[in-house]
Design goal:
Blueprint: E1 2-6, E2 10-17, E3 33-37, H1 39-49, E4 53-57, E5 59-61, H2 64-75, E6 84-86, E7 93-99, E8 105-110, E9 129-132, H3 137-146, E10 151-156, H4 161-166, E11 172-176, H5 177-184, H6 193-206, E12 211-215, E13 221-225, E14 228-232, H7 245-258, H8 263-277, H9 290-300, E15 330-331, E16 342-345, E17 348-351
Parallel strand pairs: 1-4, 1-9, 2-7, 5-6, 9-10, 10-11, 11-12
Antiparallel strand pairs: 2-3, 7-8, 12-13, 13-14, 14-15, 16-17
Length: 363
């Protein structure tokens, strides 16, 4: 499979700190982790690391940061032919402070008031899958029109005119909880299952022809499968640094879709990959190897068979996700009435008005 990732890149500098800084105080930091960043670039990086034929199309500055981003991508065999250099604006830089005591992240994005856009829409490839973060609107529209047979995946992490328009033209919308709430005009309350159903139905009403996945942070991901709304819980792990977890989820999801995994298995793999990443410090540097994800998945579902190849396992369309006893199922009322007010998240059943402690939720 040939996979094209379209969007922005940045350079990330992650600094672990002992607590949130106090204004006017001088700190001595003895550790920093540097790597390329940006959703589309991170997705391309993961796909290259996992053995896929991965291309990245985006703009970097003609500076040391831009050179380092290109070098990192090429180290995992990502094709950088479609990258462009800007001689007017430098590469965006993100400075990330990670509190070692609680795993919280504070991010400072150093970017210009305007960002350069891709100018060349010439492709010497025919992608089977197109991933976009929505920040290269014109280039994305061009690619979708030029390669209509390609499976398209959009990261909907914010709400703006261009991204809302792109949602109409892609097959998969993988959106954040914030995007889902903003577009639906409703708030999700984990203590009230009705709100989950209503938010998802609002999204489906607006984008009836799309496959929609809503990431719910440490609660997992919500999706629709065989006419039912479900929640796939995330894995339970100690959070060291949540940086890049969303990008890593998207990268694993694209990998699974490219390899013909069914939707439930794709989301399971994505949850595992993102969950493993938050246990390590750093963004791109926390991306787990494919073998780690496969081993975790096999152990979770008691699968004895282990792929011989670490880089790229053999996956066929006949492979199905084993029975998941902790996956949530909510029937979708056909007439919008009689909505079930209970929802099972992991092993906990929640009714409207109930309170769930974090320790009770299986992630």
């Amino acid at each position: 499979m040939t996979i094209l990732s379209l969007g922005r890149s940045s350079y990330d500098i992650t600094c672990p700190v002992d607590g949130y800084p106090v204004e006017g105080t001088k700190y001595l930091l003895n550790e920093k982790i540097e790597s390329g960043g940006g959703t589309a670039a991170n997705v391309a990086y993961l796909l290259g690391k996992w053995g896929e034929l991965s291309y990245f199309a985006g703009v970097v500055g003609s500076d040391d940061y831009g050179s380092q981003i290109r070098k990192e991508l090429e180290q995992v065999m990502v094709k950088t032919d479609l990258m462009e250099n800007s001689y007017d604006i430098g590469t965006p830089v993100s400075i990330i402070l990670v509190n070692k005591k609680n795993g919280s992240r504070t991010r400072f994005d150093v970017v210009g008031s305007t960002q350069p856009q891709l100018k060349k829409y010439e492709y010497n490839i025919t992608p089977d899958v197109i991933f976009t973060d929505g920040k290269e609107y014109s280039a994305t529209i061009n690619a979708l029109n030029r390669f209509p047979q390609a499976i398209s995946v959009l990261d909907a992490g914010r709400v703006d005119r261009d991204l809302l328009e792109l949602c109409k033209y892609v097959k998969y919308i993988v959106c954040s909880k914030g995007f889902a709430e903003a577009v639906s005009g409703l708030k999700i309350d984990y203590n009230n299952s009705t709100t989950l159903v209503q938010v998802y139905k609002k999204l489906k009403d607006r984008y009836p022809n799309n496959n929609i996945v809503v990431t719910l942070e440490n609660m997992g991901a919500m999706y629709s499968y065989n006419g039912e709304i479900k929640i796939m819980p995330g894995i339970k792990t100690e959070v060291v640094d949540p940086s890049c977890a969303g990008d890593i989820f998207h990268g694993a999801f694209v990998y699974c879709i490219a390899n013909n995994f069914d939707l439930e298995k794709a989301i399971t793999y994505s949850n595992i990959t993102a969950g493993l990443s938050v246990g390590k410090m750093g963004g791109r540097t926390s991306i787990p190897n494919l073998k780690e994800v496969i081993n975790y998945y096999n152990q979770k579902f008691n699968i004895v068979e282990v792929p011989k190849e670490e880089v790229k396992p053999v996956v066929t369309t006949e492979q199905k996700l084993p029975e998941i006893p902790d996956a949530t199922k909510i029937n979708i009322p056909t007439d919008g009435s009689n909505i079930d007010n209970t929802i099972t998240i992991g092993e906990v059943t929640v009714s409207s008005g109930a309170t769930v402690a974090n320790d009770d939720v299986k992630q």
